[in-house]
Structures are given as structure tokens and as C-alpha cells.
Automatic annotation (TrEMBL):
Gene3D superfamilies: Jelly Rolls. It comes from the Bacteria. This is Cupin.
């Protein structure tokens, strides 16, 4: 997969332009899911948790995640792993694109 081409598709999509958020599932199998997400500046994905271990790989922009005990900031090239059932939100400090990988739950 060409993540750069997907990045360009997401940020130019009318739905992203209207809502400030757009996601596309790249892989969906019983034991793995990979999603690319574009999130506009000042948009937040509300607090949630996944029942499996996840990674968040920031491709562009600047993200801030609020965890139960701390904040973590990610910029392009950063990768963060979160354990299963760890509550967090995702806030875009800049227009951002990231890849979310979810393991089996």
C-alpha cells in the first residue's frame, strides 16, 4: 500500500473537508485491523478504549493523546503502543494523519 497516496486521498476527500475527520480501513482480518485516519486541527476523537493492544503511528501533523495518568504527544514518525483497555482520547494539534493498528481482542 502506498500510504502517501492514501494520505493525499483522505485530505482531499469532500467528507474530510466537511467533517474534519475521515478513516479508511486498510486491513481487516480476524486477528488484525489497520486503519488510516485523517484528523483536522483542533478535532478530537473522544475518550475511548480498545479491547486489544493498539499502535498509533503518526504520519503527519501533531497529535496529543490524553491517557489516564499523562499526556503523550506524537509528531510525524512517532509510534506509540497502548495496552488493551487503556482509556485515551486523540486530539489533533495540527492537521494530522495516522495509522491505527489493532491486534486481536
Amino acid at each position: 500500500m502506498d500510504l502517501n497516496a492514501l494520505y493525499d486521498e483522505l485530505i482531499t476527500d469532500d467528507r474530510y473537508q466537511r467533517k474534519g475527520q475521515l478513516a479508511r480501513t486498510l486491513v481487516h482480518t480476524p486477528d488484525l485491523r489497520v486503519v488510516i485516519i485523517a484528523l483536522a486541527r483542533d478535532r478530537t476523537i473522544a475518550e475511548h478504549h480498545a479491547s486489544a493492544t493498539v499502535t498509533i503511528h503518526c504520519l503527519s501533523g501533531h497529535l496529543r493523546l490524553q491517557l489516564p495518568d499523562r499526556q503523550v504527544e506524537l509528531v510525524a514518525g512517532n509510534l506509540l503502543a497502548l495496552g488493551a483497555d487503556l482509556s485515551h482520547d486523540v486530539h489533533a494539534l495540527q492537521d494530522s494523519v495516522f495509522v491505527l493498528t489493532l491486534g486481536a481482542s
